[in-house]
Design brief:
The chain has 231 residues and is an alpha+beta fold. 23% of the residues lie in helices and 35% in strands. The protein contains three helices and eleven strands; from the N terminus they run αβββββββββαββα. Strands 1, 2, 3, 4, 5, 6, 7, 8, 9, 10 and 11 form an eleven-stranded antiparallel sheet that branches. The relative contact order is 0.23.
C-alpha cells in the first residue's frame, strides 16, 4: 500500500513539473489594432486603435478586440518574423491580458474570440483587418480572464505550413466570434512564439490533472486515517 501511494505521488509530481516547464522564446511579435467603420466602410479596416510603433499609439503594441462607439469592430493583430525558423517542433502563440477593457474605456465583459492566421506582410497594415485567413488557431472566452493572465495556443501546423509556403511572416488575428459593435472589449499584449504552453488559464486537461491531484491527496489521507483507527 505504501509503495502504491509513493508511485501515485511521484506520477502526480512528474505531471505537475511537466505542466510547469519553462518556455523558450522563439521570437516576439509586433502587435497592433485595426478597426472598421467610423471613417469608412464597415467590414474592412479603416483606421488604427494601436499601431506597432508609429502613427496612432494609444499606446503602441496592443491588440484590442471588441466593439466601439456602436459603429466599429476592433481586431487585434500580431505578426512574427519567421525567416530562418526551421519548424518541425512544438510552437505556441502566447500573449498576456493587458486590460479587461478596450483602449477607449468601452468596458469589458464575457465574449468569445476567434484566433485565425494570415500571411503577414511585415508591417502594421490596415488591410490586415480583412486579410484572408489561412487557418483557424482556436476560440476562447474572455469570461474569467484577469490582467496578467497568459494565454497560449499551439500553432505548430500553421507555422510549418507558412514556412513550407515560403512566407516571411506569420500573422495572428484576434476577432469577435460574433460581431458586436456595441462592445464589450478586451486588450492583449506581449505576443510571442514559444516552445511550450505558457497558459496560466486552466485548460480542461489541467483541470483534470488538478482533480487527480486532489483525489490522490484525499486517498492518502483516508488510508492514513484508517491505519490510525486500526491501531
Amino acid at each position: 500500500m505504501v509503495n502504491m501511494q509513493k508511485r501515485m505521488i511521484v506520477a502526480f509530481a512528474m505531471a505537475a513539473v511537466s505542466c510547469g516547464a519553462q518556455a523558450t522564446l522563439i521570437t516576439n511579435g509586433f502587435t497592433f489594432s485595426v478597426a472598421d467603420g467610423f471613417v469608412g466602410a464597415s467590414s474592412q479596416g479603416t483606421h488604427f486603435h494601436s499601431s506597432a510603433g508609429s502613427g496612432f499609439g494609444n499606446p503602441i503594441g496592443k491588440a484590442e478586440v471588441g466593439g466601439y462607439d456602436n459603429s466599429e469592430e476592433v481586431r487585434g493583430l500580431s505578426e512574427y518574423d519567421i525567416t530562418g525558423i526551421s519548424g518541425g517542433g512544438s510552437v505556441f502563440a502566447s500573449f498576456n491580458v493587458y486590460l479587461m477593457d478596450g483602449l477607449f474605456g468601452q468596458g469589458g465583459g464575457g465574449f468569445d474570440i476567434d484566433i485565425v492566421s494570415y500571411v503577414g506582410n511585415g508591417t502594421d497594415d490596415i488591410t490586415d483587418w480583412e486579410a484572408t485567413s489561412t487557418g483557424t488557431v482556436a476560440t476562447f472566452s474572455t469570461a474569467g480572464l484577469v490582467v496578467g493572465d497568459i494565454i497560449s495556443f499551439n500553432v505548430s501546423s500553421l507555422l510549418d505550413a507558412a514556412i513550407l509556403a515560403g512566407d516571411s511572416f506569420l500573422g495572428i488575428r484576434l476577432e469577435q466570434s460574433v460581431r458586436d459593435v456595441t462592445g464589450p472589449a478586451y486588450t492583449f499584449d506581449n505576443f510571442r512564439l514559444t516552445t511550450t504552453d505558457e497558459s496560466t488559464v486552466p485548460e480542461p486537461a489541467t483541470v483534470v490533472l488538478l482533480g487527480l491531484g486532489l483525489a490522490v491527496i484525499g486517498f492518502i489521507r483516508r488510508q492514513k486515517s484508517g491505519l490510525q483507527a486500526a491501531r
